[in-house]
Design goal:
The structure holds 2 protein chains of 2 kinds.
Chain A (H helix, E strand, L loop, with lengths): L3 H8 L2 E4 L1 H11 L4 E4 L6 H12 L6 E4 L3 H13 L4 E5 L1 H6 L1 H9 L5 E6 L13 H4 L7 E4 L3 H15 L8 E6 L8 E4 L3 H7 L16 H4 L14 H31 L7 E4 L6 E5 L1 H16 L4 E6 L1 E3 L3 H8 L4 E6 L5 H10 L7 E6 L9 H16 L7 E3 L11
Parallel strand pairs in A: 2-3, 2-4, 4-5, 5-7, 6-7, 10-11, 10-13, 13-14, 14-15
Antiparallel strand pairs in A: 1-8, 6-12, 9-11
Chain B lengths: L4 E8 L4 H16 L2 E7 L8 E9 L14 E4 L3 H7 L4 H8 L3 E7 L13 E8 L1 H9 L7 H12 L4 H11 L3 H16 L1 E8 L41 E5 L11 H5 L7 E3 L11 E3 L9 H5 L5 E5 H7 L10 H13 L1
Parallel strand pairs in B: 1-4, 4-5, 5-6
Antiparallel strand pairs in B: 1-3, 2-3, 6-7, 8-11, 9-10
Helix pairs in contact in B: 1-5, 1-6, 2-3, 4-7, 5-7, 6-7, 10-11
Classes of the chains: A alpha/beta, B alpha/beta.
Chain lengths: 413, 342
């Protein structure tokens, strides 16, 4: 039995699939051995798609579906401790339910990859997207990748496994994208062959002496895994080790993964951050995910009107790319963050990162597109106009504000 | 019509506009090698509410996947959504339907295209097809998935795509018998399609801009009361659902748990034990029709076959106490079953 996806994968290099299906296809090509599954919309399609592949014999993997997300993440951790790559996708309420094992996987240095199609936190009982459901884990020492479109979802899942499983990193990673707007958005995705993926992504290697399958479990009962982080008198040293792994090693690894991916597949998103026309920009817009798509279009339109606008897309929120942000936005006159979360995290991060710049830019924070509210290019253009006013009259515009209005495109007929 | 074709698909949740959009996108790619971009507005959780899928297809790369504010074609999966748009009860639906100025409007309705009351300014082709009827008849599934039927009608009206290419994509998307049934349903729909090529509507009910809201003027908490579903006139919940489950008194004998309740796909417990029936063995359950989509899984899995699906229209007709969403359906509707259906 074949599906449309199967045939597209076989016959075409480019396939028309959704963001969720792209994540599932990437997991398949990463040769995951365990598919962990607990349904929650809009993430459930990832698991459904993988289960379908297993049932049709396209993927040799064991399916584990347990009673809740917390158990499922624990199963994913255990599978990974046995040396098997495992996949799991969840979001908002489900991810909060699995809060405890998130810390456990980071501090036991188990490099699981959890994919997240964003959904806002409840109440109200809504399923529309914003970033809030993963940015709240910024202090769990997880890597966090944010993707803009189905193609980037596909590429980033492969890169996340590559980075997380490096022996100088060994930390878990989120790969996230907006629910519905990317997760259920069909778009062309370039799908490499299994051979090409194998050439990029080596099989998962456990650290020496860490294989649960060959360990007498009675022997280690009650102990945390070995290593700096697990040893109680060495708690502080262990946390330092993790801090270095995240903020030094992982940053280098992400840049290296980007270069390697670019070499193998000819596609890249700039590693930690992606800049667009930012070199000579007076106004730099800072955004994540598909808000950056809108910002780029706005930058083009506003440049045509004489405003020097650039875009900085923060692709990796943890480790936060402080140096890259300084380099890209430090020379601007105004930096405007476009936060898609109710706590203005990007604004605060950017403000901290640019504080030490000798001639630091004026910082403006805008909260946009929460809960799936549309954010159009016209909206973004109006925000750029505000930023331009701030160059000559900094007190004329609010430092932070929320954009409720949607400037719809005019009927041009 | 520009180089990029913009299509809005407006449905109620689980009627299938998202998957239909996916199939249309693949057909555009398959036939023309078009670039496609799409986005979804998902509605609210659990309850049946409007879902809008936006599709763009064109020869050039389309940079942004976003809502279509200048659609070329609009597919309305339930004619009640035209009323929803007209009353501006749901702003997303009002924009998705009401911004169609010219082009093609395809509506799932039992009315003729000229009988439809279009609440927006429009000059173009209106096509009407009883997609629900066709889907029930050919696919024999309840609730009827009307997506492929609507897509078939869309192609028959606009000739934007080749029908055979579309059928191939459908067959691949639904392998086996299901695909053939869907292809057949689309064929039947094309035969029964009624097209009015030149319809003019001068109404402008839809596109009044909403006044800006002061966020601080809104209540801190919404009032604790049953509110009508967003966008549905009279809060009517059962829109396209045609049957509801009813638990037969005396047949239920499970002691501790109701498998049907566990298996309900909404998982919001629309089957709830009535307080007066506390204590095992249960004599039956009350079914909260406010949440029920009428899928029938509960009836399939019920261990004692106590739950059966009944025609809701019939029950509403024979039992005036039913009263839409405010019912205690177990007590109100069951009498209707005995009197009218069973």
């Amino acid at each position: 039995m074949t599906t449309a996806t199967d045939r597209f994968v076989r016959e075409h290099k480019t396939v028309i699939i959704t963001g969720n299906q792209a994540a599932a296809e990437a997991s398949r090509l990463a040769r995951v051995g365990v598919v962990c599954f607990f349904p929650i919309g809009p993430s459930d399609e990832v698991g459904e798609h993988l289960v379908r592949m297993v049932n049709r014999g396209q993927l040799d993997a064991k399916i584990i579906d347990l009673e809740n997300e917390r158990s499922v993440v624990n199963a994913q951790i255990t599978a990974t401790q046995c040396g098997v790559r495992a996949s799991f996708s969840t979001n908002s309420e489900g991810l909060v339910f699995a809060y405890q094992p998130l810390f456990w996987s980071a501090y036991a240095r188990v490099p699981i990859v959890v994919t997240v199609a964003h959904r806002a936190m409840e109440p109200p009982t809504i399923i529309v997207p914003d970033d809030h459901d993963t940015i709240i884990y910024r202090d769990t020492h997880w890597l966090q990748f944010y993707c803009e479109n189905p193609q980037e979802v596909f590429d980033t899942v492969l890169q996340a496994y590559w980075v997380a499983e490096r022996h100088d990193v060994m930390l878990p990673a989120f790969v996230t994208w907006p629910g519905w707007e990317v997760s259920h958005s069909t778009a062309p995705v370039e799908m490499p062959s299994q051979e090409a993926v194998d050439a990029f992504l080596p099989p998962y290697q456990l650290l020496p002496g860490q294989d649960l399958l060959t360990t007498d479990l009675a022997e280690i009962y009650g102990n945390r895994p070995a290593g700096g982080a697990g040893d109680e008198p060495r708690y502080m040293e262990g946390r330092y080790q993790i801090d270095r792994a995240l903020n030094v090693n992982a940053k280098n690894a992400i840049e290296e993964a980007h270069r390697e991916y670019l070499r193998v597949f000819g596609r890249g998103y700039g590693g930690l951050v992606e800049t667009y026309r930012a070199e000579d920009a007076d106004i730099v817009l800072v955004a994540m995910e598909n808000i950056a798509t809108v910002a780029r279009e706005a930058a083009d339109q506003m440049r045509a009107r004489g405003f020097r606008v650039g875009v900085l897309k923060v692709r990796v929120l943890r480790p936060f790319p402080t140096e890259a942000v300084r380099q890209a936005a430090g020379g601007a006159r105004v930096v405007m963050t476009l936060d898609r979360n109710p706590v203005e995290l990007l604004y605060h991060e950017l403000r901290s990162a640019l504080y030490d710049e000798p001639d630091r830019p004026l910082m403006l924070g805008r909260t946009v597109a929460l809960g799936g509210r549309d954010f159009t290019v016209r909206d973004c253009n109006e925000l750029v106009e505000e930023a331009a006013v701030a160059i000559s009259a900094p007190d004329a515009v609010p430092v932070t504000s929320w954009r409720f209005k949607v400037a719809k495109e005019e009927d041009d007929r | 019509m520009g180089a990029v074709r913009e299509i809005n698909l407006v449905c109620m949740s689980s009627q299938g506009s998202v998957q239909t959009m996916e199939i249309l996108a693949r057909t555009f790619y398959e036939q023309y090698g078009y670039h496609v971009a799409s986005q979804v507005f998902p509605g609210t959780r659990s309850k049946s509410s409007p879902v809008v899928s936006y599709l763009k297809a064109g020869p050039e790369r389309i940079p942004i996947a976003s809502p279509n504010y200048n659609p070329d074609d609009v597919l309305v999966f339930w004619d009640g959504l035209l009323r929803v748009a007209g009353k501006r009860a749901h702003p997303v639906v009002a924009d998705a339907i009401g911004r169609l100025r010219t082009g093609n409007l395809i509506v799932n309705t039992t009315l003729a295209p000229t009988e439809l009351d279009l609440p927006f300014k429009f000059r173009g082709t209106v096509a009407a097809v009883d997609a629900t009827g066709v889907a029930k008849e050919v696919l024999k599934r309840d609730p009827p998935p009307v997506g492929i039927v609507m897509a078939g009608a869309y192609i028959a009206v606009t000739h934007a795509l080749d029908m055979e290419v579309f059928f191939d994509v459908v067959r691949e998307h639904f392998p086996g018998r299901l695909g053939e049934q869907n292809v057949e349903a689309a064929r039947v729909a094309c035969e029964r399609l009624q097209i009015a090529p030149e319809v003019v509507s001068l109404s402008d009910a839809v596109l009044e801009d909403e006044p800006p809201v002061d966020p601080m003027s809104l209540p801190i908490q919404p009032p604790l009361q049953k509110r009508p579903m967003p966008g549905l006139p009279n809060g009517d919940p059962h829109i396209w659902r045609t049957s509801i489950p009813i638990c037969e008194d005396g047949l239920c004998a499970c002691n501790d748990m109701c498998l049907s309740e566990v298996m309900c796909p909404d998982n919001t417990g629309f089957i709830v034990r009535h307080p007066s029936l506390a204590g095992p063995p249960h004599q039956g359950y009350r079914i909260d029709v406010d949440h029920c989509r009428g899928c029938g899984i509960c009836a399939e899995v019920c261990v004692y076959s106590a739950i059966h699906m009944f025609n809701e229209t019939e029950i509403v007709r024979t039992n005036p106490n039913y009263g839409g969403i405010t019912v205690e359906p177990f007590f109100g509707a069951r009498q209707g079953v005995k009197g009218g259906v069973a």
